[in-house]
Write a structure and sequence with these properties.
By secondary structure, the chain is an alpha+beta fold. The protein has 13 helices and 5 strands. It starts with 6 loop residues before the first helix and ends with a helix. The relative contact order is 0.16.
Length: 251
């Protein structure tokens, strides 16, 4: 399992939120909700399309009350995050997993930096491909009606990540805006050990300090979140997993 995110990760986001509040003329509460991972740090889930963010959720209201009363706001956010980890799966060691969205018959590929030896290093390619093969087997067994696979992450900017997937899946990607409240946008600031990249973070805040519009602020992020998708049959064929009858009949 990946180590807990450090205090510096949340301090960086808080500094950015303060800048957003000043430049965009919105409340700090709103900036925290929309442009940092504070919502998910509370253990809340924003939903696959971020439409599930609820500013009136009791957990979020309690978080804001504690935040405004805290002598060290960044440490407070970090503490809330650490407490939320107790409700999550402590035994997850694989980097790849998936989530099935029944309404659209799509599978969302999810990635976590859970390999201390280096999740995307060349020497670990076989491990990641094996995990994706296992994910495909789970999909075929538990979600035979699945028709498409989707992904949304800044990692699709990296050749080291794209090389793990079927060519059809990463042939075309589309930039996604508005995912600043999940790790997708903030992941580039973390190295493979989960430590904040100090130089990148400093350059980011320095650029943000000179921004005069919200668009300028959002342009400070080093990578854009990219979305991609393809028919699930490409995954079955690429990883050598027998496709369920439902997928074969649609192929």
């Amino acid at each position: 399992m990946a180590p807990p995110l450090p205090l510096e990760h949340f301090a960086l986001q808080l500094a950015f939120a303060r800048r957003v509040a000043a430049v965009a003329d919105i409340s700090l509460d709103d900036a925290l909700l929309r442009y940092t991972t504070s919502y998910t740090a509370c253990g809340l889930r924003p939903g696959s399309d971020l439409a599930g963010i609820d500013a009136t959720a009791p957990e979020w209201v309690a978080f804001l009350n504690g935040f405004h009363a805290a002598p060290d706001p960044a440490a407070y956010i970090h503490g809330v995050y650490l407490a939320s980890l107790k409700t999550r799966d402590p035994d997850r060691v694989m980097c790849f997993s998936c989530r099935y969205i029944e309404e659209t018959r799509t599978v969302r590929i999810q990635f976590g930096n859970n390999d201390p030896a280096g999740s995307l290093k060349a020497a670990r390619i076989a491990n990641r491909v094996s995990e994706l093969r296992d994910v495909c087997a789970v999909i075929a067994s538990e979600f035979p009606d699945a028709e498409r696979v989707t992904g949304r992450s800044w990692l699709y900017n990296l050749a080291a990540y794209r090389r793990l997937f079927p060519p059809a899946f990463v042939a075309q990607t589309e930039a996604v805006e508005g995912e600043y409240c999940v790790v997708s946008s903030w992941g580039p600031f973390l190295d493979r050990h989960g430590t904040v990249k100090a130089e990148m973070a400093a350059a980011f805040l320095a650029q943000a300090a000179t921004a005069t519009t919200l668009d300028d602020l959002l342009a400070c992020f080093p990578f854009r979140v990219l979305a991609t998708s393809c028919e699930i049959t490409h995954f079955y064929a690429y990883y050598g997993v027998a496709a369920p009858l439902a997928a074969v009949s649609k192929g």
